[in-house]
Design goal:
The complex is a heterodimer of chains A (355) and B (274).
Chain A (H helix, E strand, L loop, with lengths): L13 H4 L6 H20 L2 H26 L7 H19 L3 H20 L7 H21 L1 H4 L5 E2 L3 E3 L2 E3 L2 H23 L2 H11 L1 H6 L4 H27 L1 E2 L6 H14 L4 H25 L3 H6 L1 H23 L3 H15 L5
Antiparallel strand pairs in A: 1-4, 2-3
Chain B lengths: L5 E12 L2 E12 L3 E5 L6 H9 L6 E6 L2 E2 L8 H4 L1 E3 L12 H7 L9 H4 L7 H18 L15 H14 L4 E5 L7 H16 L4 E5 L3 H7 L2 E6 L2 E6 L1 H6 L1 H8 L3 H4 L1 H6 L5
Parallel strand pairs in B: 3-8, 3-9, 6-7, 7-8
Antiparallel strand pairs in B: 1-2, 1-4, 4-5, 9-10
Helix pairs in contact in B: 3-6, 5-6
Classes of the chains: A mainly alpha (355), B alpha/beta (274).
Chain lengths: 355, 274
C-alpha cells in the first residue's frame, strides 16, 4: 500500500521526507500521547500502572525478537532465556561491582548481546527448523545455567535486586518506575525505528527478502544474520534488566520456554516486521488475560458461570484465550495489529469516500 | 567505439556440476566502455557465465580478471565494492521494502554508518549521510523515470516496473561493469524501447560498461558493440553484431532453426504508431 499523505502536505527536503512520523497529525498525536502517558501516574491506580509497566518491558523484549524474526526472517524460541540473562546480569553487576542501576541496565543489555552473539553464531549457517532447534538449545542451556550458577544468579533461590535510583530519586513504586520504563521504551523504540531507516537495518530486511541479491549488493550474510541475534539479545537483556529492578526479585522459574513462546505470540499478533506492532502485540498479550478476568467477573453468579464454573477454570481459560488469539491472528490477520491499525487509519483518511 | 582496454577478461573458464558441463573453455574480453552481449539458445550457459562473474558460481577451471585483479575466488559480497553490479533474470527485488529502500540497499557498500551510529540517527551524522545518498538515489530514480512509485512497496509493482527498479538498484552501486541478465524478458515493445534507451544512456552518459544477456535479437543487434554466442557451454562466435549474425555456425546453432527470429530487427525498429 502506498503511503498516503493529506493534500497540501508537501515535503520540500529529503530530511522532511525521512521522518518517522510523516504527517503533522501523527506528530500531534505523538506529543499528545506522550503528554497523556506522563500524566498517567497522577490518574491511574497502581494496578493499572503495573500493567503499563509490564507492557513497556514486554514491548522492548518483543521488539528485539521482532528485529530477529520479523525483520531478519530468522527464528528464535530462546528469547526468554536472554530476557532472563539480562535480569540476572543487571542484578549481579549491581551487587558485585556496586554499579548504579541506571548503568547496570544497558550494561546487562551488552552482556546479553555477547551471549546472544555466541548462541546466534549458528545462525550464520543454519536456517528454518534447524535454527529453531539451535535456539531451543540456547533456552535450555541458559535455564540450566541459571539454576546452577550460584555466584551469578543466586541459584534456585533467586536473587534480590535493588530498585532503580538516579541522583537520589528512587523508583521503587509503580508511580515512579513507570517513568523509567517509559524513558527506556522511547529510547529503544526510536533506536529501532532509526536502525530500520539506515544501512544496517535495510541490510537485515534485504537478507530476509532475498539473500542472493543481498549478497550481490555487497551484504555480508553471515555478519548480518549473527548481528540480528546480537541486537535482539541486547533488547531482551535491557527488558530483562528493567524487569529485575521492577519486581526487585529475580528467579529462574520466570524465564521458561513458555515465555519464549509468548514473546513469539506478541510478535505475530503485533505484526512481523513492524516496530510499533511489537508494542501493540505486547499490550495485547498483557491485557488479554485482564479482559478475560473482567468478563469472568462480570458473568460471576450468572447462569453461564454456573454452567461452566468459570470461577474455577479462570487460570486455564487465560492460557486458552492466548492460544486462540494467536491462531485467529494467524488465520485472519497474519500481518498483525500493525496492519489492522494502518487500515483503520487509511479508512479515516479517505472517509467518507473510501473508493 | 574504439576503446580497447579490457575491463573484464575470462580466461579458459570451465564450469562443471558433477557430470554436467555448463561451460567449457570459454575465453572472452569485455572492453572498457562497450555494450557486450551474450546470446545463445536456452541452456547454453549464458547465465552460468554471468554467475561466475558475479560470484554466485566459482569456475571449475580458468580465471576471471576484473580491472586487472584476479576475482575468480573473490567472495560475492566483495564484488560490489570493486565495481560489479548485476540484475537477475527472475526478479530478485526485496519484495517487502519500498522502491526507495530497495535502491538504497544498492548504496550499501558506499554507506559508512552501521547500527552503532545509525540508531542515534541525529547525533553522529547518519542522517547527513542518508540525505546525501538519497540525493544520488533520486537522480537514478529520475533517470529511470520511476518517481511515481518511489514510496510503493516493490512487491506490488507491475513486472516492467520491477525490472526497472532492479536496474535502478544495480545502478545505485555505481558499478564500473553492470551485468544485465535478460533485462527485457517479458516486456512489451514500449517497455523494451525504454529499457534499450536506459541501457544506452547508462553506457554513454554514465560511462558504465554493460554486459548483457538478451534473447531479443533486434535489441541485441541494435545496441551492442560486440556479441558473443554460446552454444552447449562453448563459445562459437564473437565479434561485431553483423559479423556474428553472418557466421554460419551461429545461424545453424541459434538462428537458423527459426528464420523469423532473424527478421525481428526490422520489426523492432518500426515506430509504435504510424
Amino acid at each position: 500500500m502506498a503511503v498516503m499523505t493529506p493534500a497540501g502536505d508537501y515535503r520540500t527536503s529529503y530530511r522532511e521526507d525521512m521522518t518517522i512520523f510523516p504527517t503533522r497529525n501523527s506528530r500531534l498525536a505523538l506529543w499528545l500521547g506522550l503528554a497523556l502517558l506522563c500524566a498517567a501516574p497522577l490518574v491511574l491506580g497502581r494496578y493499572e500502572l503495573g500493567l503499563l509497566v509490564n507492557i513497556g518491558i514486554m514491548g522492548i523484549a518483543a521488539l528485539g525478537l521482532n528485529i530477529l524474526v520479523g525483520f531478519t526472517g530468522q527464528i528464535s524460541i530462546g528469547h526468554a532465556a536472554f530476557f532472563g540473562f539480562g535480569a540476572f546480569a543487571s542484578a549481579w553487576l549491581h551487587e558485585q561491582f556496586h554499579i548504579p542501576v541506571v548503568l547496570c541496565i544497558p550494561l546487562a543489555g551488552f552482556m546479553t548481546a555477547l551471549i546472544g552473539l555466541v548462541f546466534g553464531a549458528p545462525a550464520a549457517r543454519l536456517k528454518g527448523l534447524y535454527l529453531a532447534i539451535a535456539t531451543l538449545a540456547a533456552q535450555f542451556i541458559l535455564e540450566d545455567f541459571f539454576a546452577r550458577a550460584q555466584w551469578f544468579t543466586g541459584g534456585v533461590a533467586g536473587r534480590i535486586t535493588e530498585p532503580f535510583e538516579l541522583f537520589g530519586w528512587r523508583a521503587d513504586r509503580e508511580e515512579s518506575f513507570f517513568y523509567v520504563v517509559l524513558a527506556f521504551v522511547i529510547l529503544m523504540f526510536v533506536g529501532a525505528a532509526n536502525l530500520m531507516r539506515t544501512r544496517d537495518g535495510r541490510a537485515l530486511v534485504a537478507v530476509r527478502d532475498h539473500y542472493l541479491s543481498a549478497e550481490v549488493m555487497g551484504i555480508n550474510l553471515a555478519y548480518y544474520r549473527t548481528l540480528s541475534f546480537g541486537i535482539a539479545s541486547f533488547y531482551a537483556g535491557v527488558a530483562g534488566a528493567l524487569y529485575a529492578h521492577y519486581l526487585l526479585f529475580v528467579s529462574v522459574e520466570a524465564f521458561t520456554i513458555l515465555l519464549s513462546i509468548q514473546f513469539l505470540g506478541m510478535v505475530i499478533i503485533g505484526g512481523l516486521g513492524s516496530v510499533m506492532g511489537s508494542l501493540m502485540g505486547a499490550a495485547f498479550m498483557v491485557l488479554l488475560p485482564e479482559a478475560v478476568q473482567m468478563v469472568a467477573d462480570a458473568l460471576a453468579g450468572g447462569a453461564i458461570d454456573r454452567a461452566l464454573r468459570l470461577g474455577n477454570s479462570i487460570s486455564f481459560l487465560r492460557e486458552m484465550t492466548i492460544g486462540a488469539a494467536i491462531i485467529l491472528f494467524l488465520i485472519f490477520e497474519p500481518d498483525g495489529l500493525a496492519r489492522r491499525w494502518r487500515l483503520i487509519k487509511a479508512y479515516w483518511k479517505l472517509y467518507p469516500y473510501s473508493h | 567505439m574504439e576503446a580497447t582496454t579490457p575491463i573484464l577478461a575470462a580466461e579458459r573458464v570451465s564450469l562443471r556440476f558433477g557430470g554436467v558441463r555448463a561451460l567449457t573453455d570459454v575465453s572472452f574480453e569485455v572492453r572498457k566502455g562497450e555494450v557486450f552481449s551474450i546470446i545463445g539458445p536456452n541452456g547454453a550457459g549464458k547465465t552460468s557465465m554471468v554467475n561466475c562473474i558475479s560470484g554466485r558460481y566459482r569456475p571449475t577451471e580458468g580465471r576471471i580478471r576484473f580491472d586487472g585483479q584476479d576475482i575468480t575466488r573473490l567472495p560475492t559480497r566483495k564484488r560490489a565494492a570493486i565495481g560489479i553490479g548485476r540484475t537477475f533474470q527472475n526478479l530478485a527485488l526485496f519484495g517487502h521494502m519500498t522502491v526507495l529502500d530497495n535502491i538504497m540497499v544498492g548504496r550499501h557498500h558506499l554507506l559508512k554508518h552501521g547500527f552503532w551510529t545509525g540508531m542515534p540517527f541525529w547525533l553522529f551524522g547518519a542522517q547527513r549521510e542518508e540525505i546525501a545518498h538519497r540525493r544520488e538515489v533520486e537522480e537514478i530514480i529520475d533517470f529511470l523515470e520511476i518517481q511515481h512509485v518511489r514510496k510503493a512497496v516493490a512487491g506490488t509493482l507491475s513486472y516492467g516496473l520491477r525490472k526497472r527498479v532492479e536496474l535502478a538498484r544495480a545502478v545505485a552501486l555505481r558499478p564500473k561493469l553492470i551485468l544485465l541478465d535478460e533485462p527485457m524478458a517479458g516486456m512489451n515493445l514500449e517497455e523494451k524501447e525504454d529499457m534499450a534507451r536506459f541501457i544506452l544512456d547508462l553506457n554513454e552518459e554514465w560511462g558504465m560498461t554493460v554486459l548483457m544477456i538478451e534473447h531479443d535479437m533486434g535489441v541485441v543487434m541494435d545496441i551492442s558493440h560486440r556479441v558473443m554466442v554460446l552454444d552447449f557451454g562453448r563459445k562459437i562466435a564473437e565479434g561485431r553484431p553483423e559479423e556474428v549474425l553472418a557466421d554460419p555456425h551461429v545461424r545453424r546453432a541459434y538462428l537458423g532453426e527459426a528464420d523469423e527470429v532473424v527478421s525481428e530487427p526490422e520489426e523492432a525498429m518500426e515506430p509504435v504508431e504510424s
